[in-house]
Fold this protein.
Amino acid sequence: MPAPKILVIPGSLRTGSHNAKLAAVAAYEFTQANVDVTRISLADFPLPIYDEDLYAKSGVPKNALNLKRMIGSHHGVLIVTPEYNASVPPLLKNAIDWVSRVQDPHERRGDVFRNRAFALAGASQSRLGGSRALMALRLILTSCHANVIASQLALSFADQAYDDMDRLKNQSDIDALKELVRQLIDISQRMM
């Protein structure tokens, strides 16, 4: 069976972001598993704040279409999110809101969520590791009819989780990431 293509999306643009580091570590794990992986930045897909009036007047912004097509060109997607006020950051929520409105002529709206596997990870300096944001993101994605895998990684005390080469230090974190990577690959292959 051919290897799936995996897209990694960090939900943070902040310099030195623990989530951007985790996304990089995850992308490396996918390459170690001989998977074609792409890591993007949402900065490359700037979008206005979602507004129903703007959507009615101007339609879907080109960057929403481009992001949807980027997601659609992969079999699996890993979203790595920070936690803001016990939920997902507005940058990530806004991107999902816009992508959920994109409908190419040959598909139903939202097919980009239905036809591939999604995995979730998050990093936080707290002991909860962003788990509340992961619950909120799971709810958002499943409401878009996404296939969200069971494995997820909530990286606690992220400010202490990396070594001086930005690799994970704790074996339990490494093992959880490897399990998430394995499960996303397996489920993505079955959905191909």
